[in-house]
């Protein structure tokens, strides 16, 4: 049974009802008028923002390798990869708090339904945004978002294919560490098809995707892609996240989830919350 709902218009009640049922939502074309849709590409970032700090991820059979670099260096590596000079080492620019480094980029984004986000995140949502750039063929293996947050995802350029597996089926996916899984939804046999409830959807430039907390997802970049997302908790998802203590949730995750719950309950001022939460935006797990 598919766990994905595709819509073209935003309705607040429909959104909350659908997300609460554990469904992924894709809003088609909601961002089509954003300036970023036309402006953002590798040449734009090379020309305007070459000094942004980035993390380059290389996914291979041995896990994930990280490299700290500047945007211009990532684009050099990306160009070398496209020329065939790096073999199968696909460079993925991953989890960059882009607007905190370059607030001028906010001129390239416009309105979206802010009521998707709880009030804690809403006024300065851009502070929580993390940026991604990847060439065609890049893959993020099956995982869930490290704090078990909801995920608001903006596809600016290109297309990606997401494969989803519900949280409650994680035991069938051969877990590796805290949030990664050996199971590959793109390569499966008949018995796996019968036992695992998988949904697949493609997102294209101008689309918004929202994943409910804990949703496992595998991501393939279909064409050269630029996107960003906002991880966010609701009170309910923050509380539920603590159930994962018995699954060896890392201590850092416990701390950030506790901060989120305090902020959502109004026990901490927004400015104080973000000051303590900000290191999460550079947290690699």
Automatic annotation (TrEMBL):
InterPro entries to which the protein is assigned, alphabetical: Cupin_8, JmjC_dom
Gene3D superfamilies, A to Z: Cupin
A family per Pfam: Cupin_8
Domain JmjC, chain residue ranges per copy: 101-249
Cited PROSITE patterns: JMJC
Domain of life from the UniProt record: Bacteria
Parts of the chain that traverse the membrane: none
PANTHER family hit by this protein: HYPOXIA-INDUCIBLE FACTOR 1 ALPHA INHIBITOR-RELATED (PTHR12461), HYPOXIA-INDUCIBLE FACTOR 1-ALPHA INHIBITOR (PTHR12461:SF105)
Protein name in UniProt: JmjC domain-containing protein
Lineage of the organism: Bacteria, Pseudomonadati, Pseudomonadota, Gammaproteobacteria, Enterobacterales
